[in-house]
Amino acid sequence: MNAESxxxxxxxxxxxxxxxxxxxxAGCISKLERGLSQQPGIVNARVNFTAKxxxxxxxxxxxxxxxxxxxxxxxxxxxxxxxxxGDPAAAxxxxxxxxxxxxxxxxxxxxxxxxxxxxxxTGVTRDLFHWLSAMIALPTVIYAGQPFFRSAWNALxxxxxxxDVPISIGVSITTMLSLYETFNHGQHAYFxxxxxxxxxxxxxxxxxxxxxxxxxxxxxxxxxxTAAGAMVLRADGKTEWVDASxxxxxxxxxxxxxxxxxxxxxxxxxxxxxxxxxxxxxSAAQSVNMGDVVHAGxxxxxAPVTVRVTASxxxxxxxxxxxxxxxxxxxxxxxxxxxxxxxxxxxxxxHTLALASFGGWMIAGAGWHESLLIAVAxxxxxxxxxLGLAVPAAQIVVAGALMRAGILVKDGSALERLAEVDLAxxxxxxxxxxxxxxxxxxxxxxxxxxxxxxxLARASRHPLSEAIRRTLEAEGVIAxxxxxxxxxxxxxIYGSFNCIxxxxxxxxxEISHEGMASQLQIGDLPPFAVHFADMMRPHAExxxxxxxxxxxxxxxxxxxRAVSVAPVARTLGLTAQTSMLPxxxxxxxxxxxxxxxxxxxxxDGLNDGPALAAGYASMAPASASDAGQQAxxxxxxxxxxxxxxxxxxxxxxxQRIVRQNFVMAIGYNAIAVPLAIGxxxxxxxxxAAMSGSSLIVVANALRLRSAAR
Amino acid sequence: MTGLALLIPVALGLGLLGLAGxxxxxxxxxxxxxxxxxxxxxxxxxxxx
Lengths: 709, 49
Hints:
The complex is a heterodimer.
Chain A lengths: L13 E6 L6 H12 L4 E7 L4 E6 L5 H10 L5 E3 L6 H31 L4 H22 L1 H12 L6 H20 L7 H32 L6 E5 L5 E5 L8 E4 L8 E6 L2 E4 L1 H4 L5 E3 L4 E2 L4 E2 L4 E7 L5 H15 L6 H26 L4 H15 L2 H20 L2 E3 L2 H9 L2 E4 L1 H5 E7 L7 H11 L5 H13 L7 E6 L3 E6 L2 E6 L11 E6 L5 E9 L3 H10 L3 E5 L4 H11 L2 E3 L4 H13 L4 E4 L6 H6 L2 E5 L4 H6 L2 E3 L6 H36 L4 H20 L7
Parallel strand pairs in A: 15-22, 15-24, 22-23, 24-25, 25-26
Antiparallel strand pairs in A: 1-3, 1-4, 2-3, 5-6, 5-7, 7-13, 8-11, 8-13, 9-10, 9-12, 14-26, 16-21, 17-18, 18-19, 19-20, 20-21
Chain B lengths: L1 H26 L6 H7 L9
C-alpha cells in the first residue's frame, strides 16, 4: 500500500502523534508518509487527513524535537499532540453510530415484515410476522434505546425533565403493549414505529456528536503547544532538552531568539526584548536585562538569553490565568438547549394528552384494552421525532457551511447562544489588529533596496525580518544575490552585495514609530528606515457596521495602553477600556451581564482566556493562544474579521429554521393528534406520518447550506 | 408458506451479515478518516516495479 515500510520486529516501538495543519491534498499524504518512513528510526507513519494528524511509530531513541525536525524535512510544520489517550467524546460518537446501525438494520427488517401485514396478512401469517418483529425489536430497543433511557433516568433523578423522558416512556410503553398484542393475536403491533423512532432520534444524536468531534479535531490541529519544553544548561556545561513538566526551579534555560518561555524565571545572562502580547495584550516588545523577571508563554524576540527558572508548571503566571478561566467557566450559568427548553412544555403536554385520551375512552366505555391502544397511538404520534431531528439537522448543516468558510463551531449550543448576543466586546491586539508587525512604508523603497531587503530579511527569524519577507514575497520581489550573510543577535543581519557592505538592523538613532523600526544600510548611501505597525484586520470596519445593523453594540476591552488603542478605537468608532488585567476584563463582562446584556467576547490572547470563558458566547481567531482557542466557542481562520458577522448571521438564520421546524412539528401534531385520539391511527399511518415529518424537517434544514455566505 | 420458511431466515441472515460488516468496519477504523480515504486513491504507488 501507500508508503509503508516493513515492520522490523523491534521490542519497544513508540507511537507519537503530531498535528500537521498544513496538509491539504493527496500529495501531502504521500509526501508525509513516504518521506517519514524513509528516515532513520521511523518505522511507519500514518496520516489521518480528517483530523490533520500524523501518527508515527518510531524507535524510542528519537525525541520530540527530532521527530518535529523529521517532519519539517518533508516540508511540513508540525506540533506534538500530548493527549493521545482515547477521549470520551469520540467514544460516544462511535457508540451512537453503532446504536444507529442496529436500529437501522432492525427498522429495515421489521418494515419488510410490516409491509406484508399492512397489505393484508391475517391469521397465522400475521402472528408469525408479529413474533418475528418482536424478536428483532426487543433486543434493538434494549441496545439502541440505552442513550435515551440513561439520560432520562439521570434527569428524573435530579427531578428535572428533558427530551428523553417522553421518548423513554413512549418507547417502553409501546414496546410492552405491542408484545401483549402479539401474545394475544392482536391486529396491531407498533414494533416498526418504535424502532423507526429510535433510528431517527439516534440519527439526530449522532449528527450532534459528529459536529462536536469535527470541530474539536479542527481546533486541536491548530493548538500550538506553547513551549513544550526548554534547552537546559546542566552544571557540567552540557545542554539537554527538558519537557515543560520536568522543569524545576533553579534550572538554567537557554532561550534562543524566537523561542517561547516554558517557565517563569529571572534573566541571568544576556539582554533581549520580549513580546508579552500573549500575557498582557501589549503589542510593543519590552526590553529585558539581567535580573529582570520573565514569564512563561512570552516570546524572546531579539537575542539568546539564559534564564534561571523560578516557577514552573502550576506555579507560573500562565497557570494563574488558567485557574481564573476555570472559575469563570464554572460560574457561567448552565445553558439549557432549545430542544430541552421545548421539551419542558412538550413532555407534560404529551403525557396529559395520552392520559386524557385513555381516560376519555374508558369513560366512553371502550374497554381498557382499546383505550390503552389509543393512548399508545397518541404517544407514538406525538413522540418528538421531528423535534429530536429538527435541531441537530439544522445545526450540523450550518456548522458544515461555516466550516467550509473557515469557521469552526465547537458545539450546537454555541450556535444557539451566538444567535442571542446583543453586545460584542473585542480585544485589540491580535483580534481587531493582526497582532504582528507589518511594514508600512516599503512602497517608498526602490527596486534595489527591496531586493537587498528581501535577501537580508530571509536570513533571520526575527519577527520584523519575517514581516518584511512576507510582504516582499507577496509583492513578487526577487531577492538580490548576497554573500557572507551573518546574523548578529540583537544587532542585525550583515552581508555583502556586489562587494558593498549591506546591513539590516536596529536603527542607530531611535526613530519612534510605535517603537518599531529597522534600518537598511547599503554602502555609504543614506539609510532607509522601515517602519512597522500592527495593522488592523481586513473587514474590521464592515464587521462593526454589520454588527450594528443586527442590533449589536460593540466595544473594545484591551490590555494595551490607551495610546496604542486610541487610533483603532477612533477608526472603528468604538468606545474602549484600556490597560485591563485579565481580572478587569472578567469584571467588565460580569457588569454587562448584570445589566442584562448577553455578551459576545472576541479575543485571542491568554489574557483574554478568562473573559472568553465568561462571555455568553465567545469567538477567537485561529492565531489565538491555545488557551484562547480552548475557551472560545467558535474559532475562525484567516486574517479577516468578517467571520464574526458571518457567524452571527448564520446562527440567527439557524435559529429561524429551527423555529420553523418546531412550528412544522407542532402543526403536524395538530393534525395527527386528533386522528390518534379518535382512534383512526393504525401502525401504517403512524409510520408514514413519522417518516414524512422527519423528511420535511431535514429538507428544511438543508436550506441552510448557503448560510455562511 | 414453505417459501417463507426459507426466505425469512435468508433475509434476516443477510441483514445481520450487513450489520456485522458495518460493526467490523467501524471497529477497524474505516470511518476515522473519511476525507483521507477519498484522497488516498489518487496517490500513485511508486514502490511497485
